[in-house]
Amino acid sequence: MFLLCVSLITFRVLSFSNSYIQLSPRNSAFHLIVGRFVGSMALLILSPNLISLIVGWDGLGISSFFLVIFYKRNKAFNAGLLTALSNRVGDGLILISFTLGAYYSSFSFVPLTSTASFPPFLWLVVIIAAAFTKRAQVPFRA
To answer: How far is Cα 19 from Cα 14, in angstroms, rounded to an integer?
Structure first.
């Protein structure tokens, strides 16, 4: 269902972009970057293991950086650097959440009600913070 939503949004972005960069010589480069972004999102959504999830996660960060600096202006470059730095924070947080899950041998939210030694609230907070940095939510935006 989420992949269908991503596909619909991608179709709208590409159809809208044709109206404002149709005559640009970099039109195909923009479509290629958007395609990489969508491919990374699909890999993230459909990933069967943690390695492919990290590849999709990092692909989103890299392609979002190139989308932000697409017009090669000073303001866009500064925003792109801020995007890259916040994505690196998110990458570190997602790796910490994987480490916590592996250390406590649980990647499930079911222990929220049990008395296990695993601190699921901490794990949930780290994953949400990682998602916030990836989406540049408050306080990770300028």
So the answer is: 9
Cα separation, 99 vs 94, in Å, equals 9
Is the distance from CB of 134 to CB of 90 less than 8 angstroms?
Answer: yes
Where would I find the beta strands (DSSP E) of the chain? none
Tell me the pLDDT of the chain (142 aa) as tens digits.
889 999 999 999 888 887 777 777 777 888 899 999 999 999 988 988 888 888 998 898 899 889 888 888 888 888 888 888 888 888 888 888 888 777 766 665 554 455 555 566 777 788 888 888 876 655 555 5
| Share in percent of the chain as helix, strand, coil (round to 5) | 75, 0, 25
The predicted model scores a pTM of 0.73
Are the CB atoms for 7 and 42 separated by under 8 Å? no
Considering only CA atoms, which of 68, 57, 123, 63 is closest in space to residue 96?
A: 123
Q: Which amino acid is at 57?
A: W
**Token pair in block for residue 129:** 């913070």
What residue spans define the domains of the chain? 1-72, 73-142
